[in-house]
Specification:
11 helices; mainly alpha
Length: 201
């Protein structure tokens, strides 16, 4: 699944709990995020969480429904396991910020602080086929190319590599693997399938 260990809580809670959490970004949560990720990465993570929380509230649905469904299905099968296949969010944030100039960083901070887009009924329908947060990241990539490279292209490679490793035969027998990823990564994974090695990630 397109999750890393720091986002695995999405699997442990039901949708109602996650919706409540999205509405409640409190001081303790902020402190924990900064302690875990460092000041600069922590602040950006909080701003991204805030944007995600606004989207969640607008849509009335918590992120990660497809991942929770996958875990429910896995629990009904024998000899099946869930693998967290995404790059740690702290590394992704660090790489994204490293690629921005000071001016771009300040501009991005302002954009994240002032983010207040209303989501239309049409966009809600589109969410059934697309990951809205992923789409917003792609839009930001137009203004901040480093963001697009790190959040989309690099993670395409990372996710593709995770799937390739999971698909390796076990004990001489072929394995069956199902990858649960945002639709924004599907094309990149297909394009790079079978060609990604450890050095690229």
């Amino acid at each position: 699944v397109e999750l890393c260990p720091s986002r695995v809580h999405i699997l442990r809670h039901d949708e109602k709990t996650l919706l409540e959490e999205a509405k409640d970004i409190n001081l303790t949560k902020i402190r924990n995020i900064i302690n875990t990720n460092g000041l600069i990465n922590g602040v950006f993570y909080i701003l991204l969480l805030n944007m995600s929380a606004k989207i969640t509230k607008e849509l009335g649905m918590a992120p990660g429904g497809e991942f929770r469904r996958a875990v429910n299905e896995v629990n009904q099968l024998d000899h099946c396991m869930v693998h967290l296949g995404d790059r740690p969010i702290a590394i992704t944030l660090k790489r994204a910020l490293h690629g921005l100039s000071l001016f771009q960083t300040l501009k991005l901070v302002w954009k994240l602080i002032t983010f207040d887009e209303e989501i239309t009924t049409e966009e809600v329908e589109q969410c059934k086929q697309k990951d809205l947060l992923e789409e917003l990241m792609k839009e930001m990539a137009g203004e901040f190319p480093a963001f697009g490279d790190v959040f989309v292209k690099e993670r395409d490679l990372f996710l593709c590599h995770s799937l390739q490793v999971a698909a390796l035969p076990q004990h001489g027998r072929p394995t069956k693997v199902v990858g649960i990823v945002g639709i924004g990564h599907a094309e990149g994974i297909s394009k790079n399938w079978g060609t990604v090695d450890q050095k690229q990630i």
